[in-house]
Design goal:
heterodimer, A: 76 residues, mainly alpha, 4 helices, B: 389 residues, 3 domains, 18 helices, globular
Chain lengths: 76, 389
């Protein structure tokens, strides 16, 4: 039963595709490397999504800046 | 700091990327050399003073020696030896001499010891070039191209560790598609900054407690929470650094190797290492594991080659016994995994088994962080408190 449940979850979430979309939005992947991209990312309004990502990122950076520390690996 | 300072973006990254794209083919490598030298001197001076800044001479010396590298040449061996020596003296002198004179004051202790900026990474690139030239796996390139390779500042300080044969074609190609590269690059840089500011730095409030005094009075759930927080922090911190480095390189139109591919939640420790600090794993595989496993006269068992490689990996992460123990721990995990696969055959594809293996792998990696985040005594105290209360 657990197997069936996990299979169902896996099918619904399609984790690989989800990761690809996150990577695309994060700048780590080009759109042509996303399998079956959502319609919003191929439409003429795709720039709105990208602007939203930048705005959210800038707000988060602004909100949390000022408490920054050294990157761990710089000392390695 | 570096990647989370305005100076990096306003004085180095944006001017260098614009200049690189506007200049002609012959001048592009020199623009990297110019900005890379300025970057090194500026940040090395801030971190280690004049002596740190003068370490720019290491790059110039290496670039001169590298012009003599050719197939089966002793110059290549000299290049490899000098890379190891540079790293050994600056990073491990006090550690190893301290081990030799463990019973007394270290008479050769280097009190003014400092780490040149990015030494663990640029010496690995020096070594790679010397090795690959010795076996004719890469072309020589011009002086300006090699200097651009070693002084390419987005990856100079903490990787990803590049390969010359991958870098050279990108350096020689004329960068096109300015708008796409900059949109992708800036998105990647912003992602890195969010990970650093909003995740890694926020978790300091928890990971700060991983010290003997706090561990001594903490309850079990708190100990587990701190270690889990450390596992998230180190991933967020280093992958943030890699994101910014890769995004910065993209502004030049240069694609550098990825460093992380969703490492937590992999099905076994071997897959974890294939997805964690990938450029280092590949370097260790090519320049430590394979040469050790294929030693001509004494061919060690595969397990021994694995353990030696992971011990070197541990030592590379820091000059301390805890890092050696962390390397040994991962070496043993990889060894046990190999043996387990031989014994049990291919892994089950059943979703429950896959899920369990993902969780188990994360827990083993998590346990290892106790050795990474703390010194040996503190780590032992951590486990004593966790197990015995």
């Amino acid at each position: 039963m657990l197997n069936a449940l996990l299979e169902e979850v896996d099918t619904r979430m399609n984790f690989t595709r989800f990761c690809q979309i996150v990577e695309y939005l994060a700048g780590a992947r080009d759109l042509n490397a996303v399998d079956d991209p959502p319609r919003i990312l191929t439409s003429s309004y795709e720039w709105v999504v990208r602007c939203c990502v930048w705005v959210v990122a800038l707000v988060l950076i602004y909100a949390f800046s000022g408490q920054t520390s050294k990157f761990i690996y710089i000392d390695f | 700091m570096i990647f989370n300072t305005f100076v990096y973006y306003l004085m180095f990254l944006f001017p260098a990327a614009v200049a690189y794209r506007l200049l002609n083919k012959d001048l592009r490598p020199w623009s990297i050399v110019l900005f890379g030298s300025g970057f090194f001197v500026y940040f090395a001076y801030h971190m280690a003073g004049l002596a740190g800044a003068l370490c720019l001479a290491l790059f110039l010396w290496e670039s001169i020696i590298s012009r003599f590298y050719k197939l089966d040449s002793w110059w290549c061996v000299l290049g490899m030896v000098q890379s190891v020596l540079i790293l050994g003296v600056f990073k491990y002198w006090n550690f190893f001499t301290g081990l030799v004179f463990w019973h007394a004051d270290n008479p050769v202790h280097w009190s003014g010891a400092f780490l040149p900026l990015g030494i663990s990474f640029f010496t690995f690139e020096f070594y790679h070039y010397a090795w690959d030239r010795k076996y004719n796996r890469t072309e020589s390139g011009t002086l300006s191209e090699y200097l651009a390779f070693i002084l390419f500042f987005p990856t100079m300080v903490a990787g990803p560790i590049k390969r010359y044969q991958d870098f050279l074609p990108k350096l020689r190609a004329t960068p096109k598609d300015w708008s796409n590269d900059w949109e992708r690059g800036i998105s990647r840089i912003l992602t890195g900054l969010v990970k650093k500011f909003a995740v890694a730095d926020l978790l300091i409030a928890l990971t700060y407690h991983l010290n003997a005094a706090d561990i001594g009075v903490a309850a079990r759930p708190a100990l587990i929470l701190w270690l889990v927080a450390y596992s998230i922090k180190i991933y967020a911190d280093f992958s943030a650094y890699s994101d910014i480095a890769i995004g910065s390189a993209r502004l030049f139109g240069i694609v550098v190797p990825e460093n992380f591919d969703w490492p937590y939640g992999r099905q076994n420790i071997q897959k974890f290492w294939a997805c964690w600090h990938m450029s280092l794993t590949r370097w260790l595989t090519d320049y430590v594991f394979i040469p050790v496993a294929r030693l001509p006269k004494f061919r060690p068992p595969l397990y021994l080659a694995i353990v030696i490689t992971m011990l070197i990996s541990g030592l590379w992460h820091g000059a301390g016994l805890n890092f050696l123990a962390w390397g040994l721990y991962h070496g043993l995990l990889l060894m046990i995994h190999q043996q387990w696969r031989r014994w049990k055959g291919p892994p089950s594809e059943a979703p429950a088994a896959v899920f369990a293996s993902r969780v188990a792998t994360y827990l083993f990696v998590l346990a290892g962080y106790s050795l990474f985040a703390m010194n040996l005594q503190c780590s032992m105290l951590f486990w004593r408190r966790l197990i015995l209360g």
